[in-house]
Design goal:
single chain, Rossmann fold, three-stranded mixed sheet, 7 strands, alpha/beta
């Protein structure tokens, strides 16, 4: 139940997360060995416009629109902290200009949700904006086998960034989701271009329940 701090030791449970952890070690090593001016940031799950639709929120917005199944890993109880992408960009800009060299800063939304609850909020928002009855697409939820080594909770503590540089998220989650859903519904041509061809093969490999 502890939060991830800037001083927390990395403890990856999958090759995917281990590869991300190793990149941070490389960055710090270049500073220690060669004096390269580096800063490391760790962030919450992002959401917002232009996100590739392998990710949960844009994937589900598109599937709801087209009445396709919504694949939920395990029981949907994995917890993630969510951050609107514009707030992440603001934080990176602030850290780049005002952060201390060789420091680490966490960028978090203070906004933890279970996946299944996120999905229900997305369904409710899409249904309302499409003029469908509330909850009309809840039947699309389809539980699939959880990923191996899938962490149950990510919780970022970004108080250091708030205290030292004065950053904080500008949007509450419900506001950010409203803006995000509207963008994807209004940019279906972009979504169609991204989800054609090779992406469909990726989708089938990732979410088939074989």
């Amino acid at each position: 139940e502890e939060f991830f701090l800037e001083t927390t030791k990395y403890n990856p449970h999958s090759p995917y997360s281990a590869s991300k952890a190793s990149s941070d070690h490389f960055v710090r090593a270049f500073h220690d060995t060669y004096g390269m001016p580096t800063i490391v940031t760790n962030c919450s799950n992002n959401y917002g416009p232009y996100q590739f639709p392998e990710k949960l929120i844009p994937l589900f917005i598109n599937n709801i629109r087209h009445r396709k199944p919504l694949p939920v890993y395990g029981k949907g109880e994995n917890v993630r902290d969510w951050l609107y992408v514009v707030d992440h960009a603001r934080a990176i800009d602030m850290i780049f200009h005002k952060g201390k060299i060789a420091e680490t800063y966490n960028i978090g939304g203070f906004n933890e949700w279970k996946n299944i609850d996120i999905i229900k909020v997305v369904i409710k928002t899409v249904d309302r904006l499409l003029g469908r009855p509330e909850g009309a697409d809840l039947d699309l939820i389809t539980y699939v086998t959880d990923r191996k080594g899938h962490d149950m909770r990510y919780a970022i503590d970004s108080r250091k960034l708030q205290k030292e540089l004065g950053w904080e998220p500008s949007l509450q989650f419900e506001e950010g989701i409203e803006e995000t859903v509207k963008w994807y519904l209004e940019n279906q041509e972009w979504m169609d271009n991204v989800t054609s061809g090779d992406y469909q093969k990726y989708y089938d490999n990732m979410y088939s329940n074989r």
